[in-house]
Design goal:
The chain is an alpha+beta fold. 42% of the residues lie in helices and 10% in strands. It is built from 44 helices and 36 strands. It has a 9-stranded mixed beta sheet with strand order 2-3-16-13-18-11-10-4-9. A 5-stranded mixed beta sheet has the order 1-15-14-17-12, with no helix packed on it. Strands 19-22-20-21 form a 4-stranded mixed beta sheet, with no helix packed on it. Helix 28 packs across helix 30, helix 29 packs antiparallel against helix 30 and helix 36 packs antiparallel against helix 40. The longest helix is centred in the first third of the chain and has 37 residues. It starts with 11 loop residues before the first helix and ends with a strand. The C terminus is likely disordered.
């Protein structure tokens, strides 16, 4: 949005107020403080009382459609009001586009939403504070302000010369309007001409004097002019050029706007003529230099001075401070869209300098004592620098030439800070007070809304144009929604509100997919982010256009009426001309006056000058839309709250381009880079819709850019060029001369950090031109490539239309269907609506339907299938049966096979081909299927003629029928001749298949199937010999089947001799495979059982058990013998032999007391026991002298422990025999091993009948070898060999080998024991070694064990350190019996004995802790 007003120095205002105060014929401004309004502190409070929306004028819901006003003040025509339907209202861009052509004719329009559109007002009124600006109504009107400025400058001029103008001179007893007197004289070529031509009387009549004595009136007017005006005019002739030159230097040079063509038709881009020619600004000036103003931007140079500032100030002292105090809240008014940090003026002394700090003539700040300060603007001047020079300080008010000549600066003073509730109360009191006191001026009856609105509008323009009556109001405008919040719901603050994403929400509308603003990289407050406006009665927004000529949309949330005035964009030139004609004095000082947004001009004046001007009244819930290039202004009827934002549909672009160029003429800072926007769209939006409008815009931009580059290259030969390879901030590519954004190229020089655009390459610095550097963002080729891509995309619909017209409107020949399809496929890739696409699609669809029908006839799928069948020369019987089942019955009872791809019904008749060819004659295309169909028609006629010949002669050549049938099906039409040929072919093929089948074996079902197929083909035994042979073979097969099944199904044992005969007969008789296989299986089982029984009987007679039959195989045969069909006479005796063998196995389980039934099978037990015996009693395991455990990998490791295995895990050494034992074999707790240093193994302790030692089974719990031998000898006589006998044999053989090895040791031991001699240590070592083997084996050898223990006990005891004879340490598990014999001679560790006594030692105990027992004494010791 363009700020609705801006601030400027306007130093004359204080003087204006003083002048009005001193004039007897002027009225004082109405001060707002007179209405008993609440005071507002300088700083806003953190939270205020919320605004009561129900108390607001105009907050009521929209009613029925109001009637337009019959007449309104100034006799203006109203702009149109639109009432969209619910459907039309869904898309704001589409709806505004639909009314744009009419809307541009008015410049502004009003849109009243459907009644369902009622967004909530969500602004936090408790925390919303805003600052206002004060507006004096008659100071805003151009003519009034020009008159007041002139009178103020005239007053200061005469005051400085010693004449005080306390009041205006009177003529004919009323004040003389010196301003209009001056204008009347100027219009008549000046004072001398008027005097010479005696025009004073004419001037008097023009000023409204009608006195009878015109000579006296002429004399009075001439005297007044000569005394008051003429000296000032003479002064201006010399002072004005100097002041204007000074202002130009401060502003960077004179403004030289070009005369540009505004007319833009449709969506076309700006013409080439609209671009400035490649010349310097001075060269570009020609003809009328009037500016074409586009938008108004706020000025914020400094605040206004008060009335009495510097009233007695003469000299600047060194300790003076001119710093301004900024408001405590952010100024919501007159804030620039973009910061101007990149703007550099050529006259740098005028920048960043406080008033009075330096001399305005010499620029120095020294000699402060002689520095004279202007009483109007505070600027300083050395008295010696003035012309004429001053010798001393004047004793009167002194004004500089700039103040006396006037700069036309004007702006609004800052108001107070309010919340909405405070401002509402102030507005209400002011309006009530004003209406009450001024009813006589506008009428007494103001009961209706229309009457009140007309009264307010009439009063507004009366006050604006009044020279005498000054009314001051306040307006809260241009309030940033980003800082204060929006009246609409937003996604960030109200995500669940449905209106937060509504397309008419002003926070959403600028950035939708149809708005070009979505491609701007940053948010722009007022353009892409809404601004808020809080108005009161008479508060005003002056004439202006929107920034960059954009659209704007304004929504009133609540409050009193807002009246708008709009001028169509086509009348913008007329409007500006009228403004210059009415107030040339203001434009003389400010050529960019209309950018300042501080000037009003009555619509009545505009309409009188033939400028179209329209009015419209906006009320709550209504939108007002302004169109590009349309000037608009307005005022408020009371307290209200509006929100506004800009938006940019695609048709805005040419207006935006023109606006940027005019900005450049006036050195106005753009809001964004137009070139960057276009290139961003070209990069990101690849749609054809965008390309159509973007292509001409890009081309215009690129052509102008390349043209200007070439001009600079021509002006600066050997110009150095570089390409920009990084992104710059906007301030970094802003022209230091005209403030334009030089996005595509900039001119640089090493002497300065400033850059300039191509238009002002010569304004950069004072260096030689050869030092300039041209920096481009894109090369000329890259620009042209970008334009080409977009243009190619934009012309796709047009190029397609050319192809379509050429293809479809050729009078010579029809287009091919292939070209039509290609053209349609190309159209489908064009994402743009083209009307002719639908017509082409219908043509192609009709053609495709016809071609599909034609191809159903032309296709040759059946021919390919027939060839595949013919290639398969080894057709199986199963495929023959399948072919019989695939036959279908025809109308005459015959069966035939139809191709699966044949089209149904009438589509396969020859007449259908004729119909297709007739239809295609009227279709606008050609296709190869047409020729193929015509060729097919000829082929059908040839086929019919040849078929009739074959069916008459009936030859026996199969290949002839195959060829004809393939040809017939290749035609893909229904022909009765094909069925007749197939029937004959099927008969011949059946006979061939029967002949081929008889060469190999045929099962009975094959014969039956062939007979069924032959019956379908009408064969009988009478008319076909082969069929008769098949019938006889079928009878033989059925007889064989019946007799064979009788044997298989009989109870008891069948006649195997008969079954053998039947089995042999099947080789020459067709039988069923199932019966044949059943007989074969039964005969195989019979032979297997018979042979097995014979083998078992023979093997049972063999002497060695190991040569007899295995029990497993015997049991298999026993299972077979349970079948009644396999019973034999010897079955009972065979069962008895099996029972004898199983009884022997059962007796063996009693021989091994350590076998537990149920834990594992007896066979598994014997297998593991045999493995254990072979490991422990291995004869190869010989004793070694004190072997030590060896870690690591070795080829042979020593064996240890009772298990006779190598070292592993935790090992324990016996203190007596120094043998190592595995802890896991001893089953010792790890704690017990660590707590006892001395350990004696169970072999070194006379076991004295103990039941268990460390988990090692004692002899009485081992398997006695003697019973095992007896069981073994018994097993040698059982009838069948068993796996148990195999493992038993391993046990006996291992024990026997060990006995042979131990025999010498036992004989030596018997001799020593018999003679009572002690055993040697070597002998004892051997005894321990073999006792360990026996202990680990699980076998008990009574004699051997006794002899070895006697050898160990031949010496009286072992050496111990205790008084008691400690033979060993014995761990007794829980619930074990401890005999007293052990207690008397051993240290016994028993787990946790509670309350134990000596007598209970022999009893069963159950505990966890341990005790130590010496002899019969008990000592409890917890370990």
């Amino acid at each position: 949005m363009v700020p609705e007003f801006g601030s400027s120095p306007a130093t004359e205002l204080s003087g204006l107020k003083a002048f009005r105060a001193k004039s007897h014929n002027t009225t004082h401004p109405i001060p707002l403080s007179e209405f008993n309004l609440p005071a507002v502190n300088a700083r806003p409070r953190s939270k205020s009382q919320a605004l009561d929306l129900n108390s607001i004028e105009g907050i009521k819901p929209r009613g029925a459609k109001p009637e337009p006003k019959i007449s309104r003040p100034l006799n203006l025509q109203e702009a149109p009001t639109y009432y969209p339907t619910e459907q039309e209202f869904k898309d704001p861009y589409a709806y505004i586009k639909s009314i744009a052509s009419e809307g541009r004719e008015y410049g502004i329009i009003k849109i009243v939403p459907p009644d369902s559109f009622r967004p909530s007002f969500v602004l936090d009124t408790e925390n919303f504070w805003f600052k206002t600006r004060r507006q004096e109504l008659n100071s805003m009107e151009g003519s009034t302000r020009a008159a007041l400025n002139f009178l103020e400058q005239l007053r200061m001029f005469h005051k400085q010369r010693g004449m005080t103008m306390n009041r205006l001179p009177s003529v004919d007893r009323r004040p003389l309007d010196l301003f209009h007197l001056k204008k009347a004289v100027d219009m008549r070529s000046g004072f001398e001409v008027v005097c010479k031509r005696k025009l004073w009387a004419e001037i008097g009549r023009e000023l409204g004097y009608s006195g009878k004595i015109m000579t006296s009136l002429s004399t009075s007017l001439k005297a007044a002019y000569q005394r008051y005006v003429y000296p000032y005019e003479v002064y201006l002739q010399s002072a004005k050029p100097v002041v204007q030159k000074q202002l130009e230097e401060e502003n960077g040079g004179p403004l030289t706007p070009m005369k540009r063509q505004r007319t833009i038709s449709g969506a076309s881009t700006v013409s080439e003529a609209s671009h400035p020619s490649p010349t310097t600004p001075t060269d570009a000036v020609s003809g009328d230099n009037r500016p074409i103003l586009m938008t108004v931007e706020a000025r914020s140079d400094r605040d206004l001075t008060s009335e009495d500032v510097h009233a007695n100030k003469r000299q600047r002292t060194n300790d003076e401070s001119t710093e301004q105090q900024h408001p405590t809240v952010m100024n919501s008014n007159a804030i620039m869209h973009r910061k101007t940090g990149a703007v550099k003026r050529l006259h740098s002394m005028a920048l960043n300098r406080r008033p009075g700090e330096n001399c305005e003539v010499c620029g120095r700040g020294d000699d402060a004592a002689s520095m004279l300060l202007c009483d109007g603007c505070d600027n300083g001047y050395h008295m010696a620098c003035l012309k004429p020079q001053l010798k001393s300080l004047p004793d009167y008010d002194w004004y500089c030439d700039k103040c006396l000549v006037g700069t036309a600066d004007y702006g609004f003073e800052e108001g107070q800070i309010y919340n909405l509730r405070q401002f509402q109360e102030k507005c209400k009191n002011f309006k009530d007070h004003y209406v009450t006191n001024h009813r006589t001026n506008g009428g007494n009856e103001l009961n209706s809304n229309e009457a009140m609105e007309n009264f307010i509008e009439t009063e507004f323009w009366r006050l604006v144009e009044s020279m005498d009556e000054t009314v001051e109001v306040e307006y809260g405008a241009d309030i940033h929604s980003t800082l204060h919040g929006s009246g609409f719901p937003t996604v960030e603050r109200q995500p669940l509100d449905k209106y937060s994403l509504d397309p008419w929400n002003l926070n959403v509308m600028p950035l939708t997919e149809k708005s070009l603003f979505r491609y701007i990289k940053s948010d722009i407050s007022g353009m892409t982010l809404p601004w808020l406006y809080v108005g009161m009665v008479f508060s005003t927004f002056c004439w202006h256009m929107e920034d960059h000529n954009t659209y704007s949309i304004n929504y009133q949330h609540f409050g009193a009426t807002k009246t708008w005035y709009g001028i169509p964009g086509d009348d913008a030139d007329k409007f500006e001309n009228v403004m210059r004609e009415e107030v040339p004095e203001l434009f003389e000082g400010q050529p960019d006056l209309l950018f300042q947004l501080v000037t009003m001009l009555s619509p009545k004046v505009l309409t009188e000058k033939k400028v179209r001007c329209y009015a419209i009244d906006q009320r709550p819930g209504e939108f007002v839309v302004t169109f590009p290039q349309a000037y608009h202004a307005g005022f408020n009827h009371g307290f209200n709250f509006n929100e506004a934002v800009n938006f940019a549909p695609t048709d805005w672009e040419p207006y935006g381009r023109l606006g940027v160029e005019i900005y450049q003429d006036y050195r106005k800072l753009p809001v964004f880079s137009h070139d960057e926007l276009l290139l961003t769209i070209a990069t990101q939006d690849t749609t054809i819709d965008s390309a159509i409008w973007l292509a001409p815009a890009l081309k215009s931009m690129a052509d102008h850019e390349v043209k200007m580059r070439q001009h600079v290259r021509d002006m600066i030969p050997k110009l150095k060029e570089i390409q920009l390879d990084l992104e710059l901030q906007e301030e970094e590519f802003q022209c230091a001369y005209c403030n334009a954004y030089c996005f595509l190229s900039q001119v640089l020089c090493s002497c300065t950090s400033n850059i300039v655009c191509l238009n002002h390459y010569d304004e950069l610095c004072d260096c030689e031109r050869t030092t300039r550097v041209l920096r481009v963002r894109m090369s000329d080729e890259e620009l042209e490539k970008t334009v080409y891509k977009v243009s190619a995309r934009a012309t796709q619909p047009e190029q397609w239309m050319k192809k379509y017209e050429k293809l479809t409107h050729s009078p010579e020949e029809k287009p091919s269907i292939r070209s039509l399809r290609s053209l349609l496929a190309e159209a489908d890739k064009i994402a743009y609506p083209i009307k002719q696409i639908d017509d082409l699609r219908k043509i192609v669809e009709t053609a495709n339907e016809w071609i599909e029908e034609a191809q159903g006839i032309i296709a040759r799928k059946l021919q390919q299938r027939r060839r595949a069948e013919r290639a398969n020369s080894t057709t199986s019987i199963a495929s023959r049966r399948a072919s019989v089942r695939s036959l279908s019955i025809t109308d005459d009872g015959r069966e035939t096979s139809l191709p699966p791809s044949a089209p149904p019904g009438n589509n396969r008749k020859p007449e259908y081909i004729d119909d297709l060819l007739e239809r295609v004659k009227n279709m606008p295309f050609v296709a190869p299927e047409i020729e193929q169909l015509e060729e097919r028609q000829e082929q059908i006629e040839e086929f019919l003629e040849r078929s009739r010949e074959i069916l008459t002669e009936l030859p026996e050549d199969m290949s002839l029928y195959v060829a004809m049938i393939e040809t017939g099906y290749g035609l893909n039409v229904e022909l009765p001749e094909i069925e007749q040929l197939e029937w004959r072919q099927a008969q011949l093929r059946w006979k061939e298949r029967v002949i081929d089948a008889r060469k190999t074996y045929m099962y009975l079902q094959d014969v039956i199937d062939l007979l069924a197929e032959g019956q379908v083909l009408k064969f009988t035994a009478d008319n076909e010999p082969i069929y008769a042979k098949l019938l006889r073979a079928e009878q033989r097969g059925l007889t064989w089947e019946r007799e064979a099944k009788a044997q298989l199904e009989m109870e008891g044992k069948p006649d195997y001799d008969l079954l053998e005969d039947k089995y042999d007969d099947a080789t020459t008789t067709p039988v069923t495979k199932e019966t044949y296989d059943a007989i074969g299986r039964l005969l195989v089982k019979h032979r297997e059982v018979r042979d097995a029984l014979s083998n078992f009987s023979r093997d049972a007679q063999k002497d060695s058990i190991f040569e007899r039959s295995n029990l497993k195989e015997v049991k298999k045969i026993a299972e077979l013998l349970k079948d009644p069909m396999l019973r034999f006479d010897r079955t009972q005796s065979f069962d008895e032999l099996v029972s004898v063998t199983e009884s022997w196995i059962s007796r063996g389980q009693q021989v091994f007391p350590n076998y537990e039934t149920g834990s594992q099978s007896f066979l598994s037990f014997l297998e593991s026991f045999s493995k254990k015996i072979r490991t422990s009693l291995a004869a190869e395991d010989v004793p070694t002298k004190n072997p030590e455990p060896v870690l690591g990998k070795h080829r042979s490791k020593p064996l240890f422990c009772i298990c006779r295995m190598p070292e592993s895990g935790l090992m324990i050494e016996c203190e007596q025999c120094h043998e190592w034992y595995h802890n896991r074999c001893l089953r010792l707790p790890r704690g017990a091993v660590k707590d006892n240093d001395d350990y004696f193994c169970p072999i070194c302790v006379p076991l004295a009948g103990c039941t268990s030692v460390f988990g090692i089974e004692l002899e009485r719990y081992r398997a006695d070898l003697a019973p095992i031998r007896e069981w073994y000898l018994e097993g040698l006589n059982i009838p069948f060999m068993t796996d148990e006998m195999k493992y038993l044999n391993q046990i006996i053989q291992t024990a026997s080998k060990l006995g042979d090895v131990m025999e010498p040791i036992l004989n030596q031991s018997r001799t020593l024991l018999k003679e009572g001699l002690p055993a040697t240590e070597d002998l004892k070592s051997l005894a321990r070694f073999y006792l360990r083997k026996l202990a680990g084996s699980g076998i008990y050898m009574a004699d051997t064990g006794d002899i070895l223990r006697c050898v160990l006990s031949s010496k009286s005891g072992l050496e111990t350190d205790s008084e008691a004879l400690v033979v060993s340490t014995v761990v007794v598990p829980c619930k074990m019996t401890l005999p007293l014999a052990v207690v008397d001679s051993a240290e016994v560790k028993i787990p946790k004995v509670n309350d134990i006594s000596a007598n209970s030692i022999a009893k069963e105990v159950s505990c966890d802790d341990e005790i130590v027992v010496h002899d019969s004494d008990i000592e409890v010791k917890v370990l």
